[in-house]
Amino acid sequence: MKDLLRTEDLCRADVDLILDTATEFAKNPLRSNTALSNKTVAIYMTKPSTRTRLASETAVAHLGGTPIFLRGDDLQLGRGETISDTAKIISGFCDALIIRTFKQSDVDELGAAASIPVINALTDDDHPTQLLADWITIQEKFGNDIAGRKFVYLGDGNNMTHSWLIMGAIMGAHVVAATPDGKWAPDAAVVAKAKAIAVKSGATVEVTNDPEGAARGASLLYTDVWMSMGDPEAERAEKFAALSPYAITDHLMSLTEKDSIFMHCLPAHRGEEVAASVIDGPKSVIWREAFHRRTTIQALLYHLTRGELKGN
Hints:
This protein is of the alpha/beta class. It has two domains: 7-126 and 292-305, 3-Layer(aba) Sandwich (Rossmann fold), CATH 3.40.50.1370; 130-290, Aspartate/ornithine carbamoyltransferase (Rossmann fold, 3-Layer(aba) Sandwich). Helices cover 42% and strands 14% of the residues. Strands 7-6-5-8-9 form a five-stranded parallel sheet. Strands 2-1-3-4 form a four-stranded parallel sheet, with helices on both faces.
């Protein structure tokens, strides 16, 4: 496995290896501080970022490497140079590329043309590095025995929903996406892919339009902002009306298990997709989840640059 372009690229053994190593990096961030010694990692972002940028640059530094941060207008891509040519140039200077952008097809093309590992740090379709941070946080809370537990995502059927269903299927979990019907439902092809993975892993993948039914008996409620980068502002009122029943409130949390937790990939808009009393409350693990963006990207870089991930 050369690249991590989509969540579905990972097999269960890959995820277990990454999370085990990330656990060690959480305890001692500098335990492998020569792994990328005298090496550079390009971090190319056309979307604004707080957690992903900080986590990526810190992860590279903790592995002994040098991060090179590039904005969308820093490269000749903006003046017509092809993605393929850009990938070859970056491959000649750097030892890995982390990219956060809009089109999944751009990331796929970079991966095909680059000779170095390419890591998808978010596209409009997928967010695999976030799900690694999510799952190490889940395992810290519930351990590896998740039998009988239900993990629920509520809100917009976006890239996070897609990643949530695919990773849950890989991990053999009971995962639920509660979203409206229609334009804000998850992509049917992604749901089908998750269910196909679930057949092999023993997972249960569920999509519903019932937020209260989804929350009832859940061990985890998860959400994301309702207006993502690039969403048309003209759709705001319609979208908020459709998504308002899926806001995570104290009432929805009261339907969950006693030891349940709340998660959010951040940034959050208190009073929209989640009540302030929930995100700042005792069940919230968002800061630990955000912390693990670094540990998991560090572990992913460590194993990917060593050629130690199998892929599907």
